[in-house]
Structure formats: C-alpha cells, structure tokens
Structure to design on (763 residues):
C-alpha cells in the first residue's frame, strides 16, 4: 500500500513539475530582445527588437500591415510592417510576435517603422491587454504620453461633434469632452471599418450623448485615439 | 451524321469557353453602339480621389446629381479615396475578380499596368472622335468640350503606347511654399527663382541654435527647414533639370546612374544635419510650416489651402500657428533659365464591361466631368487648373483668378498664387514616360531618397558601396532589372480556377483530336476494305 501511495505521490509531483515548466509569463522576453523600458528609452532612429502580443491590426495591403501590439508593461504601434497576406491572417488578437525595426516619431506618434517580424512562442500563450482607465488624466498630456498606444478607456465623455474625413464610409472624427478636456478621437476605417459594430455605433451618435470610449491611444500632434468601442451611458 | 453533330456541339462549347477565357473577365474589345439605350437602368461605379477636402466631395456629388438629372436611367455610385496608391491597389485586386469600377480617377502610370491585362481599359480615341457621343458630340445632352478645346499638353499625357487611354481631369504641379519672414530674418533675400543651392544654404543657416537648445530663427525646439512631400517627384524633377536619365520611352530603366548618386549624396549631407526631411519620415510639410517649424515646404498646388498662417484648412491646434508671410515659388531649380516642373493631377479612365451600353454610360459621365461647371467647381477647391480651354476662358474663372486674397477662404491668396504659377508655367511642365512598370520606377525614385535620408539618420555609412547596395536593392524590390534594364514583373500567377480551366480545355481539345483521328482512321479502314 505504501508503495502505491509513494508511487502516486511521485507521479503527482512529476506532473506538477512538468506543468510548472510550462508556466506562461507574458512579460518574458527572449535573448537579445528589449524590455518595454529599454524600448521606451531607446533613441529615435535606432534599431529596436521587441516581443509583444498583437492587440489589433489595420487591414493588410500591398504586403504590409499596421499592428497595435502590447506586452504587460506597455504598448507599441508598428507601422506598415512587412507581411505576406497569408501571415496577416495569423496576426490574431493575443498572438506573440518578435519585431525588428527602427524607432521613429511621425507627427508625435512614436512607432516602429520599416519592421519585419516572426511568430514566436506557443500558440496558446496569448496575451490581451486590459484597458487602462485614462479618464482622470485626460487633461494631462504628459501623463497620457506615458500610455501612448495602449488600450485605454475614457469614461463619461460627452460628444461634441462628429464628422467624416470624406463622406460616410471613411474615417469618422469624433470630438468628445472628457472632464474639462476636449479630445479628438478617430474611428480609423482600416482598423474598424463601416461593417463593424463600433463604426455603426459612432455613426449613430449625436451631439450631447454621454459615452464610454475604448481606444488605442494613438498620437497625431496630440492625443488622437483610435476608437475600438463605445458604450452609451 | 450523329457523330458529326456531337463533334460540332463539343467544338462550339469549347470555343465558347475559350472566348470567355480571353482577358481576365472575358471581355471583348469595346465597340461604341449606334444608339444609347435610355430605357435600360444602368448603375456605374465611380472611384474618385480627393485631397481630404470636403468641398471637392461636394463638387463630385453635385456633378453626379446634375448628370443623373440629364440621364435618369444612369445612377452613379461614388467611392472616395484620398490616396492614389490605395486606388491602384484596389483596382489591381478587382481586375482579377472582374469587379473593376466603371470610371476611375487615377494616374497614367497606373493605367499602363491596368491595361497590360488586355481589354481591361477602354481605349478612348474612337470615343473621343465619335460624331454622336464623342467630345462635342451631336447627341450629348450637355455642352462638352471638343478635342480642340482640351489643353493639348494635358490631353497628350493620357496617351499610352500611341493610344489615348485617359482623359485629364485636373492639373497641378509642385510648388515651394516659403516662410519668407524667416528667410529674411536669416539675412537672405528670396531670388526670383529658387535654386537647390539657395534652399540648402538657407536651411543649413537656420540650424543655428541658442544656448538653451532652441533654434534661433523660431525660438522653438523643433525645426526642419526643408521638407519634401513627394520624394518621387523630387528625384524625377532633379534628374529632368539636370538632363539626366530616368527612363526611355519604351521602358528602359536609366535612373541608376552617376547623376542620381550625386543628387543622393547632396541630400545625404543635409539629412545628416537634419535640415532636410520628408513627409514619410517626419510628417506633413503644412503642419510644420504653419507652426513655424519649416521654412521650405514643397507640396502640390493641390495642397495650397493647407499652407500659410491664414490657411482655410488646418490640422494643428490654433494656438500653435505662427504668423508669417508665405511666398509661393516654383520648385527649386538647377538652371533658372530653363525651369522644369512636373505636371501631375488626376486623370480619368474607363474600364471595359460586358455591356456596351454600360461602357457608353461611363463615357458620357467621364465627359460630363469636363464640363465647365465641374471643371471650375473642382479647380477652385484647391490650386488646380481646369484642363479645358473652354473652362479656363469663362468669365467666371477669369473673375475668380482676379480676386486673389479677397478672403481667406474661396479667394485665399496662397491657393490663387499656386494656381497662377501653374498657368504661367504650363510650357515648363513635363511628364515622365508611361509604360507597364513606370509606376514601380516612380516608387523606386522616391525610395532612393527616403532610404538615403533614413540611413543617414540611423547613423549608417553612406558611401559608394552603399549606393551599389541601394541600387541593387531597388532594382530587385521594384523589378527593374530585366534585360537591358527593363521592368520585369509579370501580372501575377493565374488563379487556381483559371489554371484548372485551361487544363480542362486542353484536355477537351486533345479528346476532340483523338476522337477525330479515330473516326478518320476508321473511315480509311472501311474504305480500304475490298
């Protein structure tokens, strides 16, 4: 009997150890890859190598794709990364990629440009960021900058204006007041096009509506978040 | 008899299948019908480009409404783009699925690629000269310009391989929007014609800083004295001004030469000091110009309403706009006695369809875009010039030109100066040769400048070996290295369905052949019997 108990305990221990070896830490980086802090500290126009998880992508075209990515410590905007159409379909939410490119700034948006990538990590080791509530720092540009490109929410925003870049079907410019600060949001058609729920929801908004906005904190001469969700209050 | 009948049926079916396989969507060359059937309800799709300018959208919509009122059986569905590259990409995708638009605003360079598919784009010569439906035709319900009323230089830009495939819609060129206030503050006086030397010299002088790290000229921490929007145009114009090779008429690639290298070395020098940058690397020239962070902003005349302290269209916070005097000048030149500048702007092409009536409807709408109201309406939204003598000579247009600066909206002085600059320099404009692959060559021209600028900013060594590598990379990336330096990219692999169809057709023909031979041999065998 003792032998059996000992055998069972040994097996349980072995199994536990095996599963321990598979513990998934989304913040873990491979050899030679920058931490988010290192990436943030890197000079502009220098090469960066990061690992992050796809949060969303804009539509693929011309063998390139723009990716919103994040790890538990921060977020990245990867502009027009070289990508085949077949690979673009595998860039689903949570997928881990290793990206090599150059850190640049375009109209204030810090991004990775001229990037290439490879898929890394186990397929089930995914990570999806939780939105950071930026409502209280809406009026503090420096504080917002610290969260650039992250998925954030602004709660209780009042719609001030809605217009289209060109016409229905194109980008929607949503101006909303958060606290005492007016922020220009954008429903980017290549991220959330006219067929998406969020596009239809924003299209139907009226001035004065109070909403919660979920968005990637994109920058264009100031905060210009790309909207991915709105909820009417 | 029965066998012969079966053979005939099989042959006919095969021929039908083969004919539908000719050209991607199975189209035969368009022939203009004698009569336009107005009882047929037709919907045509119009892919249009605008400059993120809602006034232009309004002109398109009004044009469509006016046209539909004249031809109630035609409905025009508008799709808007703000980027020629996206139009090009979408058209290429839709050619393979047989879902091209009917009418499309595009560049002649792009049409050269579209038409390589065969019967995809409608040649316009016969349509233009058609007595009933051609330019100035007798059956038109609107006052269309005649061929002789088109500006000949602009019309000829739509000729590809000796045939007219595009009509010009609007024309523009590039100009340099200059912060004259800062140029003078730096101790310089603007010459009558800008030169590259002058622009680079002033730009370098502007890089002087105060002890606190701000730039002396603007007191700010940000300054890029010289920003170029379209670096493909920059390279093309520099080569043209130097009389250096770019391409031959038949598509020979000449851009990878010593003059190009000399130009890139000069650009590298100023990219190194950060006195020069590009739109792709740093952002919109207008934003920097208006914030007092740029002195020489080169952009299209079609971007004039965004330029200057009082620009009617702005994309930056009002409190960041700086007061300065804006001079509108030709792009910098190497030879001021012989100024050369690119002619650009939207052209229109028509895609072939199964229904001749539908194509004729597309042609009618295309012509309608040349009527005075559309031409003047659209040209006045930006620094565009109408492409018809008819529109240019109307009292309405002449009055418009005479009222420069009356307000900061419709008569915005920078916009009108840009327009007049093109009108006065029409004979100094040029276009590059159009051929299958010219769009790729254009991309490579811009990329040479972008890559050199980026490499310098990234601390890479830019020397002779760098340019060898760069040329090689561009040649490969843009398929520019065929025999004798010709474009070599194929239209692309056939879809699996098409491959299967071709294989089955071959098999059918083989079976027909075997069956026929078998019959023949059998016949001979019987004949040989005594």
């Amino acid at each position: 009997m003792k032998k059996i108990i000992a055998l069972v305990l040994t097996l349980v221990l072995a199994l536990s150890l095996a599963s321990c070896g598979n513990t998934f830490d989304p913040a873990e980086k491979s050899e030679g890859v920058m931490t988010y802090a290192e990436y943030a500290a890197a000079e502009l126009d220098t090469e960066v190598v990061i690992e992050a998880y796809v949060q969303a992508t804009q539509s693929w075209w011309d063998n390139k794709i723009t990716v919103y990515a994040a790890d538990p410590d921060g977020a990245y905007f990867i502009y027009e990364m070289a990508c085949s159409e077949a690979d673009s379909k595998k860039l689903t939410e949570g997928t881990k990629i290793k990206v090599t490119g150059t850190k640049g700034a375009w109209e204030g948006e810090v991004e990775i440009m001229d990037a290439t990538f490879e898929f890394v990590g186990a397929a089930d080791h995914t990570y999806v960021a939780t939105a950071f509530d930026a409502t209280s720092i809406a009026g503090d540009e420096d504080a917002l900058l610290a969260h650039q490109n992250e998925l954030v929410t602004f709660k209780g925003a009042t719609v001030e204006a809605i217009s289209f870049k060109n016409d229905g079907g194109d980008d929607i410019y949503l101006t909303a007041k958060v606290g005492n600060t007016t922020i220009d949001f954008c429903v980017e058609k290549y991220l959330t096009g006219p067929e998406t729920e969020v596009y239809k929801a924003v299209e139907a908004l009226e001035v004065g509506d109070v909403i919660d906005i979920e968005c990637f904190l994109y920058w264009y001469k100031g905060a210009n978040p790309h909207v991915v969700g709105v909820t009417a209050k | 008899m029965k066998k012969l009948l079966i053979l005939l049926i099989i042959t006919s079916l095969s021929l039908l299948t083969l004919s539908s396989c000719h050209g991607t969507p199975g189209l035969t060359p368009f022939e203009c019908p004698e009569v336009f059937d107005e009882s047929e309800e037709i919907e045509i799709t119009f892919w249009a480009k605008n400059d993120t300018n809602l006034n232009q959208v309004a002109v398109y919509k009004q044009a469509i409404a006016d046209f539909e009122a004249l031809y109630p059986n035609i409905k025009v569905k508008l799709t808007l783009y703000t980027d020629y590259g996206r139009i090009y990409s979408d058209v290429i995708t839709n050619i393979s699925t047989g879902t091209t638009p009917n009418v499309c605003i595009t560049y002649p360079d792009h049409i050269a690629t579209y038409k390589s598919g065969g019967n995809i784009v409608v040649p316009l010569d016969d349509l233009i000269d058609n007595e009933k439906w051609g330019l100035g035709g007798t059956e038109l319900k609107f006052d269309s310009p005649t061929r002789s009323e088109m500006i000949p230089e602009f019309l000829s830009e739509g000729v590809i391989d000796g045939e007219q495939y595009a009509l010009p819609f609007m024309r523009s060129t590039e100009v340099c929007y200059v912060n004259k206030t800062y140029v003078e503050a730096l101790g310089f006086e603007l010459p009558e014609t800008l030169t590259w030397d002058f622009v680079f010299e002033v730009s370098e002088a502007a890089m002087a800083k105060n002890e606190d790290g701000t730039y002396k000229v603007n007191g700010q921490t940000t300054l890029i004295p010289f920003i170029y929007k379209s670096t493909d145009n920059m390279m093309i114009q520099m080569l043209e001004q130097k009389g250096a090779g770019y391409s031959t008429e038949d598509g020979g690639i000449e851009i990878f030469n010593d003059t190009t290298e000399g130009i890139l070395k000069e650009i590298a020098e100023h990219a190194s000091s950060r006195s020069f940058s590009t739109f792709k690397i740093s952002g919109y020239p207008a934003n920097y110009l208006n914030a007092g962070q740029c002195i020489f902003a080169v952009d299209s005349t079609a971007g004039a309403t965004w330029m200057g302290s009082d620009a009617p269209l702005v994309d930056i916070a009002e409190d960041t706009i700086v007061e300065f005097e804006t001079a509108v000048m030709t792009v910098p030149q190497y030879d001021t006695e012989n100024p050369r500048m690119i002619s650009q702007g939207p052209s229109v092409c028509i895609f072939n369809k199964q229904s001749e009536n539908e194509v004729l409807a597309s042609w009618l709408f295309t012509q309608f875009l040349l009527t005075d109201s559309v031409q003047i309406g659209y040209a006045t939204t930006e620094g565009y010039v109408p492409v018809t003598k008819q529109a240019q000579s109307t009292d309405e247009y002449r009055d418009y030109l005479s009222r420069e600066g009356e307000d900061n909206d419709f008569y915005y002085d920078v916009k009108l100066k840009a327009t007049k600059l093109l009108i006065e320099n029409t004979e100094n404009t040029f276009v590059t040769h159009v051929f299958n692959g010219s769009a790729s060559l254009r991309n490579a021209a811009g990329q040479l400048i972008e890559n050199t600028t980026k490499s310098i900013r990234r601390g890479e060594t830019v020397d002779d070996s760098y340019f060898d590598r760069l040329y090689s990379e561009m040649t490969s990336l843009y398929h520019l290295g065929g025999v004798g330096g010709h474009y070599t990219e194929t239209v692309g692999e056939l879809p699996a369905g098409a491959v299967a169809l071709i294989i089955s057709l071959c098999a059918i023909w083989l079976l027909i052949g075997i069956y026929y031979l078998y019959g023949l041999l059998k016949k001979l065998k019987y004949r040989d019997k005594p």
